[in-house]
């Protein structure tokens, strides 16, 4: 095939296809659809490398493009590049350039192009190497007749419009569930995952279970309205037991697989032999809605003695997704409102058989969704790849998706803020609620240990509140700043939600804030009685922490000029054509922009979200 121009930006080059695979192209309502289809059963088509597609088509973007890609790794790692395709997460992060992307956004002058899957997101990839190539990943080995994958190529003036159009095409007519459909998305919760005070750590002389129970009880006494409680991977047995120690931050621990999804006996006090330890924990706290963590299954698990399994070196997966029904039966008994399916990347890359035949990963995830429908226990995705996130938009019971790596995972929290605010753009376009991860609510005091506070506590709380999903604190007993926590929710613990996850504006998607070219500007909205309130956040995330002065014109976020604006941190109201800030490294600002005819200082000004969305 010779080079052809698609719209003004994208060229398709040569196609290298196995015998029995055909390429089809058509334009439907302004979107170029590129489709690969197997005309017969195929076997032995794997290339031996996931990053080297078997059926592939060369791609190029004209001009001098800047790129944003979502890498095929945990939390859909966002990576940026210039024309040389030197993809990296962050200019200060010396990471190897990712070789495979789930989807790609390019900017050329004033135009944008989006290349993204419209079906079968696990099987189709964009490979980065000697140029760009789209096709079937290189571990796909057996393909049935009729199997096809479709990539959409969207071209237009703004990335926002392209992502919205693509998201609607993926979701179809499916409506997003309201936040009040699950207690973990409607109300404040307490979390014990990586970064939290009680992740494999306890108070002296106590188990983790008792430490967590005492923390929740103390919060209730202090009138902090905790509803849900998350129990992380410390609550069940692994093939390599992770040590549990007194308070501190754990050393590096191996990503060992699950042996059984049953309570780890040394993690709980269980005085009764009538109830299992997790039930006793729940009884002590009055049966709050729980979230319980789940992960990949170890090849050494006794579960492998039951039924057929795909077994690999570090993980195993049941052939029949109905196996996971036992998870949901236990969850209902414990009072679980959602299972946090973590380490999704490990299932995908840890079990080669899931990748060797189309639709196996999707069948697993659709199976979990069906079990959620049957049991009334919802799902949260964590460590998800871009394919997992795209597929979640077609499922009914994934109530939130983690959109950045673990809290306190990076020495510079700005790395995680960038990750979160970028992947939120992907989640929002797909109608998904985001989850930032837990956070500490109190700034540290002199002499505090690292586990006792966070100098960026207020910004972490703000970012969590504007996720449109769960808000979970992970404080140690006695180290909660109630005033900060209560800025995220009402007195009954109901989260003050926005319409969609807070996300970077188009002009900040391609690495500009990290380079210090400008502040990281992010926006979201609240719709109330048909009127739209716009929240604008600016953060200085520059690598060298230089002071940055920057201006955001209202046109860039679709606002009329001028409009009335409330400066949340200063408590002042102005009528402005643009927002201007000068911020030192890691400092931030928040503005509330009113719709025409409304006051910007309406609502509850003690909260980050002053006007709560009524869209659910």
Please outline the helices and strands.
Layout (H helix, E strand, L loop, with lengths): L3 E3 L3 E7 L4 E8 L2 E8 L3 E2 L12 E6 L4 E6 L6 E4 L18 E9 L2 E7 L6 E6 L1 E6 L5 E2 L4 E9 L2 H13 L11 H4 L2 E2 L10 E2 L5 H14 L6 E4 L4 E3 L6 E2 L11 E6 L13 H8 L5 E5 L14 E3 L4 E3 L6 H10 L1 E6 L2 H7 L1 H5 L3 H16 L2 E4 L4 H7 L5 E5 L10 H17 L4 E2 L21 H9 L6 E2 L8 H5 L16 E2 L7 H4 L4 E9 L2 E9 L8 E6 L9 E5 L4 E5 L1 E6 L4 E6 L23
Parallel strand pairs: 15-17, 15-28, 16-19, 17-21, 21-24, 24-25, 25-26, 26-27
Antiparallel strand pairs: 1-2, 2-6, 3-4, 4-14, 5-13, 6-12, 7-8, 7-9, 9-10, 9-11, 10-14, 11-12, 18-20, 22-23, 29-30, 30-31, 31-36, 32-35, 33-34, 33-36
Helix pairs in contact: 1-10, 5-8
Descriptive terms for the model:
616 residues; Immunoglobulin-like; 13 helices; 8-stranded parallel beta sheet; single chain; globular
Descriptive report:
This protein is of the alpha+beta class. It has three domains: 4-171, no CATH class; 189-402, no CATH class; 503-593, Immunoglobulin-like. Helix 5 (325-334) packs parallel to helix 8 (360-375).
Overall pLDDT: 94
| Beginning-to-end CA distance, first to last residue | 49 Å
- Report the uncertain regions: none
Whole-number count of domains? 3
Number of helical elements: 13
Coarse structural class: alpha+beta
Largest sheet: 12 strands, antiparallel
Q: Strand portion, in percent?
A: 25-35%
* Molecular shape: globular
Radius of gyration: 24 Å
* Percent range of helical residues: 10-25%
Compute the number of strand runs. Answer: 36
